[in-house]
Amino acid sequence: MNKIFVYLIILLLPAAAFAQPVNNLSDSSTAAINQYAVLPDRGYTFEKILSDTSLVFIDGDSLRSGNATNYWLKIRINNPFHYADVYNVSLNLNLNNVLYYFNENTQKWVSYQNGLLVPYKGKRNLNEMTCVLQGQTENILYIKVEASALQKLGYNVKPLIKIEKSVYASKREQKAWLSWITSLTVLALFFLNNLYIYFSIRDKTVLFYLIAQLGGIFYITAYKRFYYILFPNSVFTSTVSPNGQLHSFDLSSLLMHGGILLIMYGVVGLTQSFLNTKKRLPVMDTALRTGLLVYVLFTVMVVVVNIFVVYLEDYTLLYHNILALLLIAIMMCTCVVGYFRKLPAATPFLLAIFLPLFFMLGTTLYHVFISFNDTSDSLMPDFSIISQALAFSIALVARTKSIHKDLKAKEMEARQLEFDLKEIGLRQRLIELENQKINADIRHEKIRNELLEQRLEVNQRELASTTLYLVQKNELLASLKTQIQELNQLYPDNKHQGLKGIESILQSNLYLDGDWRKFKLHFEQVHPHFFENLLAKYPSLTKNEIRLYAYFHINLSTKEIAVLLNIDPASVRRAKTRLYKKMAIAEEGDLQDGSN
């Protein structure tokens, strides 16, 4: 009996030495599984793992670099609760993992596969595997882990395993879906609204806003890892840290960088276009263009290296975020400078850009100082994207109002200019009409002058003919008178009374006033108001002196005047001298009266 007891103790010692510790669940929502056993895979099937007792799982072992491409993990979990519950098991080395657990309902082992290299499953989280743990019993889980990423590493890794109640994971998933849908809805509404505005006015500022919004859609979808649901995943490069954390650059990472580039390009372009920095702030415009160029080149270089060469995201992310901080600082400085220089619409733009830049700054600082990768629970990007859409949309509305105000002012100026042009046209038309009237008056006056000239010529001819007639008549009468006188001298004794009557008639015709009146009439037609002006200036002139001056005025010769007046030429000259002397004395008297 004692020998049998000793043999039993000897047989149980190895079992006690290799007994695997059990992980006990608690009331907390999430717990870390620190105790698990490791078995390198040599092409084993799961049935062999269950049935072959020669396969030994080593408790607390690590995954050795170059030892195997796959490992089996065995986990013992005690569920102290009275009921079975659904749990999510996550492994930070999540290339391609398969979880096996025993289903009490079907009395069969059930597998659940997940990971970055797993064919498309339509899930957002690629490191969570679902299982059911029975209550008040010890549950055994097996996980087959793909460790191909460890082949080129020079160190061993010990993956971190977490277990979480599915209900809490579902709440977190609902929160992620709600925040993503809310962000996308806000972005889509503002995007469609401003897309309509852009096609209406073709404003370059609105185009930059749309680019930033499109980048926000790409970024928030990649940030929340929803591209894993939309598309099959592609891993370009990857590495594993000593704690087993898998770091990879995949399609979601590529689209996230693309979204950030679109956001930065759109916000910088929006700032430049909104404030017209090229003309108004050339120094800040150069800083913005240079900062954006450096950021874009650095991002493109990092993305190309991560896709085609080696994973460098963990090493470049800090510098990437520092460049983003610098670019954000340049944009804020530009807005502040524009505000102090009182640029048009600078105040609403500064107020609008402050909030999204604040959240962008907070997101960047979170990445720099708190966590490089694990930000899935942070709502900072959602606030940043939503505030960007809302604030910039408000700024665009303010800018649109400013543009409309300027357009109204320009329209008023255009109307005023149009009115002025019409007024100028009317004035020009009035001037043309006045010119036409003046030309018509000139033509009328010309015709009138021509008629007056013709009439003057007629009057002058009549005056000349009348004067000639008077001269000839007086000459004839004087000749007849002379002949009668000669006859009387030849025949003094034979004087006939009829000849005396004729001589008397001839003498009276020499001084006929009717002839003078006829001459005066024609003279005044040629020289209007001549006699009135002459008498007004020389009121002391006699009728004969006025008659004599009129003959002088039409340039009759002394002989012709002598004939008209029936005197000899010498008498005419003496009368002319007396007349001019009298007129000169009258002018001197007028001068003296004027001086007195």
Automatic annotation (TrEMBL):
Biological process per Gene Ontology, one example term: regulation of DNA-templated transcription
Domain 7TM-DISM receptor extracellular: 183-399
Gene3D superfamilies documented for this protein: Winged helix-like DNA-binding domain superfamily/Winged helix DNA-binding domain (1.10.10.10)
Pfam families recorded: 7TMR-DISM_7TM
InterPro entries: 7TMR_DISM_rcpt_extracell_dom1, Sig_transdc_resp-reg_C-effctor, WH-like_DNA-bd_sf
Transmembrane segments: 177-199, 206-231, 251-271, 292-312, 318-340, 349-372, 378-398
Coiled coil: 430-490
Gene Ontology molecular functions: DNA binding
Keywords assigned: Coiled coil, Membrane, Signal, Transmembrane, Transmembrane helix
Keyword DNA damage: no
Coiled coil found in the keyword field: yes
Signal peptide, first to last residue: 1-19
The name this protein goes by in its record: 7TM-DISM receptor extracellular domain-containing protein
